[in-house]
Design a protein that fits this description.
The complex is a heterodimer of chains A (116) and B (116).
Chain A: E1 5-7, E2 10-13, E3 19-24, E4 31-38, E5 42-50, E6 53-57, E7 64-68, E8 74-78, E9 87-94, E10 106-107, E11 111-115
Parallel strand pairs in A: 2-11
Antiparallel strand pairs in A: 1-3, 3-8, 4-5, 4-9, 5-6, 7-8, 9-10, 9-11
Chain B: E1 3-5, E2 10-14, E3 19-21, E4 24-26, E5 33-39, E6 46-52, E7 59-61, E8 64-69, E9 74-79, E10 88-98, E11 101-106, E12 110-115
Parallel strand pairs in B: 2-12
Antiparallel strand pairs in B: 1-4, 3-9, 5-6, 5-10, 7-8, 8-9, 10-11, 10-12
Classes of the chains: A mainly beta (116), B mainly beta (116).
Chain lengths: 116, 116
């Protein structure tokens, strides 16, 4: 167990729907990262939060949004879902400082989203 | 921009053979870190190693060893006497800095199959 908890583990939904993925970081970690893993694109960075504030955005679609709450858990919201959004979504956390490339990211087990 | 190339998409070896996974990276930073992660069939991403660009000494941890060569921008990973449990997808990663924080840029991964 990595200490990063993601729910749900699996999710099947239909095109056009909206889903929310949840992540609880490791105790003491202030930074949360979201990654998308798909067969064609590999592991893509989506967005990063640090202590409740958005710090960096990657290849995140406008239909997707995220937030980090005061208790440091994070949610990734995916709306108007398309078939191509089917992927494994990972949350990772790391301890500060975020301005260091030495940070080791600890990943959760992922949430597998299937859009039918 | 940071980029990681793992030219080997899939490798199959027979148990007890040695295998080397290649990683070539590009980075705009003069000092940086490099990472390897493992994704077993269960799906989670597991941190294996972090190396500092200052230190070009090879590192060995049990059956695992890493060869870092700054001159060729390579950070190769060797498994000695492979075992079936080594079957996984292995990712090389380099941090990418944007707006004062770092995220990991991953290669496409190398799928290793160890045949008993």
């Amino acid at each position: 167990d990595s200490g990063v908890t993601q729910t749900p583990k699996h999710l099947i939904t239909a095109t056009g729907q909206r889903v929310t993925l949840r992540c609880s970081p490791r105790s003491g970690d202030l930074s949360v990262y979201w990654y998308q893993q798909s067969l064609d694109q590999g592991l893509q960075f989506l967005i990063q939060y640090y202590n409740g504030e958005e710090r960096a955005k990657g290849n995140i679609l406008e239909r997707f949004s995220a937030q980090q709450f005061p208790d440091l858990h994070s949610e990734l919201n995916l709306s108007s879902l398309e078939l191509g959004d089917s992927a494994l979504y990972f949350c990772a956390s790391s301890v500060a400082p975020i301005n260091s490339g030495a940070n080791v990211l600890t990943f959760g087990a992922g949430s597998r989203l299937t859009v039918l | 921009a940071q980029k990681v190339t793992q030219a080997q998409t899939e490798i199959s070896v027979v148990e007890k053979e040695d295998v080397t996974l290649d990683c070539v990276y590009e980075t705009r930073d003069t000092t940086y870190y490099l990472f390897w992660y493992k994704q077993p069939p269960s799906g989670e991403l597991v941190f294996l190693i972090r190396r500092n660009s200052f230190d070009e000494q090879n590192e060995i941890s049990g059956r695992y060893s890493w060869n870092f060569q700054k001159s060729t921008s390579s950070f190769n990973f060797t498994i000695t006497a492979s075992q079936v449990v080594d079957s996984a997808v292995y990712f090389c990663a380099v941090p990418y800095s944007g707006a004062g924080s770092y995220q990991l840029t991953f290669g496409k991964g190398t799928k290793l199959s160890v045949i008993p």
